[in-house]
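Milestone 3.1: sequence recovery, worked example.
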């Protein structure tokens, strides 16, 4: 069974930066999709970024391109989301997720992920 533990959420001013980390255990395959999703109050959960564990190819929603960067550390089994130039509209609960045996065509689809972290609050406000 896959277990995900998140850290790094908090309060930051517009234009500031935060780094979210996700520690994964129980992964048994290298062809794993690791994703970050977010959900604001009253809104649908939406895709933010994802990375293929094997190969390290990355994917982003259009609104965060150039501001966010997803990366991984194979030795530590961790995935990081570096968030720069944060905007108030980035405010949400952020979730780490894993799709073991995931395929490329489903990497942006939250319904295809079968393991989720607890969520961490990110608030961007002056």
């Amino acid at each position: 069974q896959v277990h995900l533990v998140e850290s790094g959420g908090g309060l930051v001013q517009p234009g500031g930066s935060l780094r979210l980390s996700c520690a994964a255990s129980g992964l048994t395959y290298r062809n794993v999709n690791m994703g970050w999703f977010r959900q604001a109050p009253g809104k649908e959960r939406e895709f933010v970024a994802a990375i293929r564990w094997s190969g390290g190819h990355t994917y982003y929603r259009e609104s965060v391109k150039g501001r966010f960067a997803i990366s991984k550390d194979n030795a530590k089994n961790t995935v990081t989301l570096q968030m720069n130039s944060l905007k108030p509209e980035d405010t949400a609960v952020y979730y780490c997720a894993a799709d073991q045996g995931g395929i490329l065509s489903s990497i942006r689809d939250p319904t295809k992920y079968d393991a989720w972290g607890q969520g961490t609050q990110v608030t961007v406000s002056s």
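The chain is about 0% helix and 50% strand. The mean pLDDT is 95.
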